[in-house]
């Protein structure tokens, strides 16, 4: 196994950082087309990563995040939500059986003393509706301050004669879910402002998406298969 | 037919860490999540870059490039292959090492700049995860001869090249290379169960 030893040696030295500039460039190019080299590099990154604990954290300049944000905006890639990528993420989460736990996961982020300035950072929440056999997955972002939600189907499919209806359920609202209206298009994001609910209720509520006949549920309650999710905070 | 919405529950096999959730939202183009990710990780990554580059202007540049890459490549992050912080540190180290090798005069000549040590904003859950791995790696490093252990640390943490290590330890770069290869082999077999 001389060859795999060589690959492991190269990968190890690449991760240690002792290769010269030319060798580094060559490895960086090769790993893109040699999966076993790429895997060996990742293995070494994982093995040596604990050493990072010995490096002290250092506050970056206060304006650095703004400079990063401007670079991203300049490349034009910042504005795009790439649904294929969300789909990939969801599929992976689902595969390892954690999608359902997302709705219960709480996000506690230790915030530093630095102020992040990109745009006024809204109190943003997300909810991920894991797909089932009939319904596609949905990804919802929610701006709590404006009480504005945007929901996107992840696996967009035409549903002839059907529509998706959004619901909210909360103990405060009683046993029956209330309709938040229909999605404008089964293939595209829909944005709705739901200012009739207070913020506390929204943070605890369960949201639902159900498949309904065109025009929406004839009964005022969900009649088709439905998915549920709660909001997960991403803002402070 | 489901006629009422119930509160979603499900098996909690493996809860994604906060950084995994943030990275996933970043992959979906969520700018707020990116800001949170930056807040949680930038002091760590900046420390890593500055230790290798020793100059703030270079670290500023490398960190900007690293976060642009993190933004663009968040969807390729694979939690089954690396923890988020390992993935982000690797992106940062690779950029910093490319830079320091490109301008190889920097590392020896430049004294490290005074460091304002920041609170390590990395998330507690990531630290816990790393603690046992660190103990294991330390034990394996302790099995190396002292010079060789120091060489591994200086290479990985401070970004020293074979030539710089050779000067410091009084050996030709070829000898350093041989030592590195043996040390890596020994470390790997020590770390492989």
Q: What would CATH call the homologous superfamily of the largest domain in chain B?
A: RNA polymerase sigma factor, region 2, helix turn helix motif
Which outline of chain A best applies? elongated
Give the fraction of residues assigned to helices of chain A. Answer: 25-40%
Number of DSSP strands of chain A? Answer: 9
Q: Biggest interface, and residues per chain?
A: A-B, 100 and 107 residues
Gyration radius from CA atoms of chain B, angstroms: 20 Å
Structural class assignment of chain A: alpha+beta
Low-confidence stretches of chain A: 78-87, 89-122
Mean pLDDT figure of chain B: 81
Q: How far apart are the termini of chain A?
A: 52 Å
Task: Write up what this structure looks like.
The complex is a heterodimer of chains A (236) and B (193). Chain A is built from 7 helices and 9 strands, in the order ααααααββββββαβββ. Chain A is an alpha+beta fold and 236 residues long. Chain A has 2 domains: 53 residues, no CATH class; 150 residues, no CATH class. In chain A, the strands form 2 sheets. Chain A has a 5-stranded antiparallel beta sheet, covered by helices on one side. In chain A, a hairpin with a 4-residue loop joins strand 2 and strand 3. In chain A, helix 1 crosses helix 3 and helix 2 crosses helix 3. Chain A starts with a helix and ends with a strand. About 19% of the residues of chain A have low confidence. By secondary structure, chain B is mainly α. Chain B has 2 domains: 105 residues, RNA polymerase sigma factor, region 2, helix turn helix motif (Rna Polymerase Sigma Factor, Chain: A); 51 residues, Winged helix-like DNA-binding domain superfamily/Winged helix DNA-binding domain (Arc Repressor Mutant, subunit A), CATH 1.10.10. Helices cover 69% and strands 0% of the residues of chain B. Chain B is built from 9 helices and no strands. The longest helix of chain B has 23 residues. Chain B is globular and about 50 Å long. Chains A and B meet through helix 1, helix 2, helix 3, helix 4 and helix 5 of A and helix 1, helix 2, helix 3, helix 4 and helix 6 of B.
């Amino acid at each position: 196994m001389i060859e795999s030893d060589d690959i492991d040696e190269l990968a190890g030295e690449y991760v240690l950082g002792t290769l010269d500039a030319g060798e580094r460039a060559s490895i960086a190019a090769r790993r893109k087309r040699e999966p076993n080299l790429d895997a060996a590099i990742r293995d070494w990154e994982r093995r040596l990563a604990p050493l990072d604990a010995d490096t002290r954290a250092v506050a970056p300049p206060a304006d650095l995040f703004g400079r990063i944000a401007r670079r991203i905006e300049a490349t034009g890639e910042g504005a795009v939500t790439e649904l294929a990528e969300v789909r990939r993420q969801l599929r992976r989460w689902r595969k390892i059986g954690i999608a359902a736990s997302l709705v219960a996961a709480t996000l506690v982020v230790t915030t530093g003393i630095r102020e992040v300035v990109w745009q006024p950072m809204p109190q943003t929440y997300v909810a991920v509706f894991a797909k089932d056999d009939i319904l596609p997955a949905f990804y919802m972002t929610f701006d709590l301050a404006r009480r504005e939600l945007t929901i996107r189907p992840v696996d967009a499919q035409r549903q002839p004669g059907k529509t998706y209806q959004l619901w909210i359920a909360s103990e405060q609202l009683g046993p029956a879910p209330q309709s938040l209206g229909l999605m404008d298009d089964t293939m595209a994001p829909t944005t709705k402002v739901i200012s009739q609910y207070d913020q506390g209720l929204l943070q605890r509520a369960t949201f639902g998406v159900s498949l309904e006949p065109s025009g929406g549920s004839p009964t005022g309650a969900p009649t088709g298969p439905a998915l549920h999710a709660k909001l997960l905070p991403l803002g402070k | 037919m489901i006629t009422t919405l119930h509160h979603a529950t499900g098996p909690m096999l493996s809860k994604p860490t906060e950084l995994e959730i943030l990275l996933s939202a970043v992959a979906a183009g969520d700018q707020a999540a990116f800001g949170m990710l930056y807040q949680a990780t930038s002091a760590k990554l900046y420390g890593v870059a500055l230790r290798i580059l020793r100059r703030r202007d270079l670290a500023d540049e490398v960190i900007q490039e690293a976060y642009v890459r993190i933004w663009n490549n968040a969807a390729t992050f694979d939690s089954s292959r690396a923890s988020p912080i390992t993935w982000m540190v690797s992106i940062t180290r690779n950029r910093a090492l490319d830079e320091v090798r490109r301008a190889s005069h920097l590392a020896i000549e430049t004294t490290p700049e005074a460091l304002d040590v920041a609170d390590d904003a990395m998330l507690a859950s990531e630290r816990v995860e790393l603690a046992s791995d660190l103990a294991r790696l330390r034990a394996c490093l302790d099995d190396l001869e002292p010079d060789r252990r120091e060489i591994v640390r200086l290479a990985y943490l401070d970004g020293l090249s074979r030539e710089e290590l050779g000067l410091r330890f009084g050996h030709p770069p070829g000898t350093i290379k041989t030592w590195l290869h043996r040390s890596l082999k020994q470390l790997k077999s020590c770390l492989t169960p």
